[in-house]
Amino acid sequence: MSRRVAPHAPPVALSIAGSDSGGGAGIQADIKTMEAHDVFATSAITAVTAQNTQGVAGSHVLPIGEIDAQIEAVTSDFDVGAIKTGMLATSEVVGLVAEKLADYDGPTVIDPVMVAATGDRLLEPEAEAAYEALIGQATLVTPNADEARVLTGINPEDAADARDVGEQLVETGAEAALVKGGHLPTEDVKDVLVTGEGATTFEHARVDTEATHGSGCTLASAIAARLARGEALEGAVEGALDFMERAVRYSLDVGQGPGAVHHLAELRDRAEREPTAEDVEEIVDRFVEEGVSALVPEVGMNVVGATPSAESVSETAAVEGRITRTMTGISPNGGVRFGASSHVARFLLSARELDSDLRYAVSCRFDDEVEGALGALDAPVVEAGDGGFGDEVDGETPAAVIERAETGREATLRIVAPDPETLIGRTLAVHDALD
Questions:
Q1: 55 vs 223: which has the higher pLDDT
Q2: Considering the entire predicted model, what is its pTM?
Q3: What is the CATH number assigned to the segment(s) 12-270?
Q4: How far apart are CA 164 and CA 162, in angstroms?
Q5: What residue ranges do the domains of the chain occupy?
Q6: What kind and span of H or E run contains 255?
Q7: How far apart are CA 216 and CA 178, in angstroms?
Q8: Name one Pfam family in it (predicted).
Q9: In sequence order, what are the residues at sequence separation of 6 or more whose Cβ sits closer than 8 angstroms to the Cβ of residue 334?
Q10: Residue 387 has pLDDT above 60, yes or no
Q11: Domain 272-433 is of which CATH architecture?
């Protein structure tokens, strides 16, 4: 017996860029990022590089005829929804790509790759001048501060300078320019999108990391993928920047260098939503079974679980309506859903700023009796106010945080853990230690 085929027809995007043997940037990053956006990734490789998280050891540019043949093979067969360019290496390759894009009527994202994050040069000096024609074909050009200086002669120091860069690139012929703020000496990262209608600044907190290998490729590919899916330019840029922020914060600890951005962080997070909700249900069921009513606050208990790279309350699962005491024990008032908790969820998210491995939390009653039982915990207990989490104690992440009673607010103990088993064990340890 044969089964009926059920094909999927995703949008298609083309990356014209170099190969990164280290897997964090270039074609490899583009393919991972596009597929994470449910876009079928095709490629035309311009150069083969020998590189890793520490630097570029060598580079070989493919013959121009081979690059041309790859582009032709893709565009003659696939309905390409967007094209993204990366490392083009030589003026001859830049010229070929500009010629090809002149015959293409879809959106194009030009990432003017000139220098790798490690500082290694990826573009011949004479090829820099050839970029003007390519930029003239761009729906969007995405330079960082160093590339902006080469392309415009402006050395951006702040968002105002970035706007000047963008305006000059639009005057050159690009429909829009996104001047990336990662290299700007500003406290927060400010990315400036300039179009013929004005400028928009996207601001987010700077992530304290050097693991940014592949960040430019990943951002440009995310924008191209979203354009291939039919999103408007500003929405595609905003969504890609959010995707990029998560990819940088939850970077990949691979190689001997700083590491690489996590191209699949958001996809992995979506895949973990159901297992996270199931974990919360498991914890709740165990608490009901064990009858931990002595730890349930007057306002009720809640259990919260965060996906691996949760950044918002909507990415945390909790009991809807909390867990309350009954005549026979405890019972949840509702089921588990995402976004059901606000206060405990925000606390867990703040705890993850200290230790991103923390994924589960429970809110418990706190009084002198409970305080006397905290010695049963396997890690330090700290005090914090205003929903904060506190700091490490002798290099160890706290197991719980005490919030003393305030006017109109009940005292609370919040226990945290990286996995359901540890959260259950810590909570039962305190419960069993009560007089």
A1: 223
A2: 0.90
A3: 3.40.1190.20
A4: 5
A5: 12-270, 272-433
A6: none
A7: 11
A8: ThiN
A9: 319, 320, 321, 340
A10: no
A11: 3-Layer(aba) Sandwich (3.40)
